[in-house]
């Protein structure tokens, strides 16, 4: 298997976190959010560098979603993290959140959403049952390629046409073996 020495997956995630950094920097400069924009930011509370009060950490042991809209203060943004003051049940709190801890960013006013991997190279997939599973796209593709061609795939000569439903219409796609196109000696 070819190893990705450049790590495009990490570069892409860093670039997308740069979008959040830029947006929050502009909000910090003006002290407010433009127009009807507001942000839902989900982050891992146990990630390195996250600083929240013990009460919040006890309540949100793994992850937490904050809403930045009208009532926030002291928003400061650096290259690696942001600080913000928010109120939770009428209790003012200061949160320090590294961008590397952010798992989701959503601006419902324009339906813009970013979702980040739990670990480099992994993608979180949510199925119809709304349960997330970890999926490594590189390993999955490699496994598919290593399995090789299907022995029971019909050839292009028309084998397997009796699988068609009555009425002449096909359902789904045809699977064609590459051997059907190779020159025979």
Keyphrases for this structure?
single chain; 185 residues; alpha+beta; SH3 type barrels; three-stranded antiparallel sheet; 3 helices; elongated; SspB-like_sf
Judged by helices, strands and strand pairing, the structural class is alpha+beta
Percentage beta strand: 25-35%
CATH class identity of the domain at 8-115:
Mainly Beta
CATH topology group of the domain at 8-115: SH3 type barrels
Which outline best applies?
A: elongated
Radius of gyration: 25 Å
Helix content: 10-25%
Low-confidence stretches: 120-165
Biggest beta-sheet profile: 4 strands, antiparallel
| Spatial sequence of strands, sheet with the most strands | 2-1-6-7
CATH architecture field of the domain at 8-115: Roll
Number of helices: 3
| Beta strands, count | 9
Alpha-carbon distance between the two ends: 32 Å
CATH superfamily of the domain at 8-115: SspB-like
What is the mean predicted local confidence, pLDDT?
Answer: 77
Order of helices and strands: HEHEEEEEEEEH
């Amino acid at each position: 298997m070819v190893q990705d020495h450049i790590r495009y997956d990490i570069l892409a995630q860093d670039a997308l976190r740069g979008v959040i950094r830029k947006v929050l920097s502009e909000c910090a400069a003006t002290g407010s959010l433009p127009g009807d924009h507001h942000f839902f930011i989900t982050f891992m509370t146990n990630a390195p560098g996250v600083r929240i009060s013990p009460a919040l950490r006890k309540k949100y042991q793994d992850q937490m979603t904050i809403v930045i809209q009208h009532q926030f203060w002291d928003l400061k943004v650096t290259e690696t993290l942001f600080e913000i003051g928010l109120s939770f049940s009428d209790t003012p709190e200061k949160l320090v959140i590294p961008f590397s801890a952010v798992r989701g960013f959503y601006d419902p006013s324009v339906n813009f959403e970013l979702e980040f991997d739990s670990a480099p190279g992994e993608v979180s997939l949510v199925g119809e049952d709304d349960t997330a599973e970890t999926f490594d796209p590189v390993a999955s593709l490699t496994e598919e390629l290593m399995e090789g061609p299907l022995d029971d795939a019909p050839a292009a000569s028309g084998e397997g046409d009796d699988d068609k439903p009555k009425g002449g219409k096909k359902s789904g796609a045809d699977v064609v073996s590459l051997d059907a196109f190779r020159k025979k000696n």
